[in-house]
Write a structure and sequence with these properties.
Layout lengths: L1 E5 L5 H11 L3 E5 L10 H6 L7 E4 L2 E4 L1 H11 L10 H25 L9 H22 L12 H12 L13 H11 L2 H16 L1
This protein binds glutathione.
């Protein structure tokens, strides 16, 4: 049985959505980072980095969204192009961009106070600018298309999570609205599996 360690609306949501879209049997273990549950000795045994997602498999624990998403896709063909070809490499390039550029910019913008000894507003402004540039690039890519790749994929699920983060109070009103991203977000939220997971996420958030 796959067990996903997940915090509500965190980046681990992409892995949760992928498991749901894949229709794979799995269990969600809620680790609320806002309550420090990712720093408990028990969780550090699962992931010594104290981060979500962590996916427990029969072969061991897998961390990092850019590894977990392809792992899930390979268990249930259809979520990414087949491994070994150029299309899969292109998908991997988008996953890497989302992780190393979009997620990193969000981290700086949402948690600017974590940059010790730096001016919080200056840190936030730099990261919001990087975020805006990255989102504009993806918005341009989505012009005239419904998906990041030729068809629906795990890349879309990963992107959706970051689009949802645009509503966080630290960045709300500081990012220029982008029409293709907004259209994409609505389209993704209308997928039945995504809508079902988002309903569960809202319940978890209400309990947080
Ligand atoms: N590169 C990792 C990043 C994981 C990550 O930063 N997770 C955040 C939630 S979005 C987390 O666990 N934060 C808790 C903390 O840093 O205390 C991935 O993509 O899986």
């Amino acid at each position: 049985m796959l067990r996903l360690h997940h915090s509500p609306l965190a980046c681990s949501l992409a892995s949760r959505l992928a498991l749901a879209e894949a229709g794979l049997p799995h269990e969600i273990v809620v680790v609320r980072t806002a309550r420090g549950e990712n720093r408990t000795p028990a969780y550090l045994q699962v992931n010594p980095r104290g981060k979500v997602p962590a996916l427990q498999t029969d072969d061991g624990v897998l961390t990092e969204s850019t590894a977990i998403l392809p792992y899930i896709a390979d268990l249930s063909p259809g979520l990414l192009p087949p491994a070994g070809g150029f299309a899969r490499a292109q998908a991997q390039a988008w996953l890497s961009f989302l992780s190393s550029t979009v997620h990193a910019a969000f981290t700086g913008a949402l948690r600017a106070e974590a940059f010790e000894g730096c001016d919080v507003e200056a840190v936030r402004a730099v990261h919001v600018a990087r975020l805006q540039a990255a989102l504009e690039e993806i918005d341009a890519h989505l012009a005239g298309r419904d998906h990041m790749l030729e068809a629906f994929s795990a890349c879309d699920l990963y992107l959706l999570v970051f689009l949802l983060w645009r509503g966080a109070p630290q960045v709300a009103g500081r990012l220029t609205p982008l029409a293709n991203l907004d259209r994409f977000q609505q389209h993704m939220l209308s997928r039945p599996a995504v809508a079902a997971v988002m309903g569960e996420e809202m319940k978890l958030m209400a309990e947080t």
